[in-house]
């Protein structure tokens, strides 16, 4: 029997590719290997479950077993691939050597934690980047049996979405970050401040312009020391200081990678023949967008290529919809340097236009009632990967 097409990773990229592939080819043997539980779930739902106190099982659309059955694939869960041998075309899993015919890396991105977490508080410090993480954090909140005091470190998309969701779930939320306003990579400062105002109006405490100096035990709580000498106490700490593409496996095998991911061309082909990458792990023709629409387009294109029709991927001008119902936010950040931001509106209803030197629209950001302009502006903006 010939070696299977092998996919590493059961996130939205890995499972999305398998689904797209099965729509074109029901026969080809496929093995999907994942370090986690292999549950079929939508990662964006992780930052919407605490408001409704959703148990983890309500976030999963199906188990790995159901997935294997439905899509006719071998699914190996809680299995970490330790190395890729490009010459022998095998994967190393402990002493086992697993042959592959073609290989797809959908290894995602891992939380980047830029400080040390002392062992004495590690049971109260969390990152939520997959369903297994959600299970742990959900259990810690439930174990308190009362609304928790949660300190969130980081005010990017993940930190802000969890802040909104946990506050809506009745928890007491503090946000800590060195930047002067939330969502610094998506929004110009006045729009970030509008989101911060909405958070404060909802009872959150913002500690901005200060970074984390250290974590220490404080009775049954965690003491959170800040760079300006101030200190707060929390039952639980949620670290949301960014995600880094998981490139280690690829890099050790000798594939070309950068800090932005495993390098691929528009066919999602890496620097080694028969090896592909997509999703948060991949930097496609210089772009690693790290959200769902680009990975869905990649899964569709790669399925076509693997089924025999080479299909280059392209990304449209797809804005990011930030799930902060306290103040809705939509942003299409410019991929190249902004000549200037032009801002219109007042209060929480703001529209910011990123314009190139010649006046062309190259990105935008919208808050509050202005989010309704997203379709009109996306039509005028350049594609992420044209
Ligand atoms: C809280 C949160 C909310 C989000 N909300 C939105 C949103 O509203 N809209 C949006 O567009 N995007 C959102 N995103 C981003 C989006 O969810 C991600 O871009 C997407 O889920 C990434 O999928 P992936 O399959 O590439 O990676 P992942 O989901 O990270 O999957 C990686 C897989 O690889 C496996 N793996 C890694 N290394 C190995 C190994 N060595 N051996 C075996 N298996 C391995 C892992 O176990 C995992 O199964 C959100 C992200 C987060 C964290």
Task: Explain what you see.
By secondary structure, the chain is of the alpha/beta class. It has three domains: 170 residues, FAD/NAD(P)-binding domain, CATH 3.50.50; 127 residues, FAD/NAD(P)-binding domain (3-Layer(bba) Sandwich); 53 residues, Enolase-like, domain 1. It is 23% helix and 30% strand. It has a five-stranded parallel beta sheet, with helices on one face. The chain has a five-stranded parallel beta sheet with strand order 11-18-12-13-14, with helices on one face. A five-stranded antiparallel beta sheet has the order 24-25-28-27-26, sandwiched between helices. The longest helix has 15 residues. The structure holds flavin-adenine dinucleotide. Flavin-adenine dinucleotide (FAD) binds next to helix 1, helix 4 and helix 7.
Quick recap:
The chain has 8 helices and 28 strands. The chain has 386 residues and is of the alpha/beta class. A 5-stranded parallel β-sheet has the order 5-2-1-9-22, with helices on one face.
């Amino acid at each position: 029997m010939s070696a299977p097409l092998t996919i590493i990773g059961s996130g939205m990229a890995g499972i999305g590719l398998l689904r797209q592939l099965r729509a074109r080819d029901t026969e080809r043997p496929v093995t999907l290997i994942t370090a986690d539980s292999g549950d079929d779930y939508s990662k964006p739902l992780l930052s919407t479950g605490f408001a409704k106190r959703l148990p983890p099982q309500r976030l999963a659309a199906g188990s790995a077993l159901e997935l294997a059955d439905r899509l006719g694939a071998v699914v190996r869960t809680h299995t970490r691939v330790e190395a890729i041998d490009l010459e022998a075309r095998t994967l190393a899993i402990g002493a086992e050597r697993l042959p592959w015919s073609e290989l797809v890396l959908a290894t995602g991105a891992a939380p980047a934690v830029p400080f040390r977490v002392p062992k004495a508080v590690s049971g109260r410090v969390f990152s939520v980047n997959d369903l297994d993480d959600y299970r742990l954090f959900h259990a810690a909140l439930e174990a308190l049996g009362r609304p928790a005091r949660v300190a969130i470190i980081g005010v990017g998309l993940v930190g802000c979405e969890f802040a909104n969701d946990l506050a809506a779930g009745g928890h007491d939320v503090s946000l800590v970050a060195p930047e002067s306003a939330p969502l610094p990579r998506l929004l110009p400062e006045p729009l970030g401040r509008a989101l911060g105002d909405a958070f404060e109006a909802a009872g959150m405490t913002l500690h901005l312009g200060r970074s984390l100096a250290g974590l220490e035990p404080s009775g049954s709580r965690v003491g959170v020391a800040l760079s300006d000498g101030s200190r707060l106490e929390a039952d639980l700490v949620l670290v949301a200081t960014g995600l880094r593409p998981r490139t280690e496996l690829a890099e050790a095998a000798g594939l070309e990678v950068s800090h932005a991911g495993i390098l691929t061309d528009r066919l999602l082909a890496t620097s080694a023949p028969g090896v592909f990458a997509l999703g948060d792990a991949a930097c496609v023709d210089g772009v690693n967008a790290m959200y769902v629409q680009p990975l869905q387009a990649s899964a569709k294109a790669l399925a076509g290529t693997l089924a025999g029709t080479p299909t280059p991927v392209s990304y449209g001008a797809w804005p990011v919809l930030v799930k902060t119902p306290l103040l809705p936010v939509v942003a299409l950040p410019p991929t190249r340097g902004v000549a200037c931001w032009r801002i219109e509106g007042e209060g929480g209803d703001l529209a910011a236009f990123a314009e190139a030197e010649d006046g062309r629209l190259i990105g935008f950001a919208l808050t509050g009632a202005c989010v309704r302009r997203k379709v009109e502006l996306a039509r005028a903006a350049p594609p992420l990967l044209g």
